[in-house]
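An example makes the point: we print one protein in full, the chain in one-letter code, the fold tokenised, without further comment:
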Amino acid sequence: DYDERTPPDPLTALRMCSTAGRLCPVAEECRIYADALGAAAGVWGGLTYVDGVPLGRPSITNNRR
């Protein structure tokens, strides 16, 4: 859950749709549904939708040295 006035950044949205480091098994279907529904706002399949457009996809890297 989040305050809709400040939607989550892409990495936080991805974490909201993950458990134990694994993306929800229906995340892709969820994103397809959001696109078909024309979702105006919310987190769908690990992406944050604002005004019907998904924010940038998160980039996860492990650059520890």
Remarks:
- The longest helix spans residues 27-37.
- The CA atoms of residues 9 and 33 lie 21 Å apart.
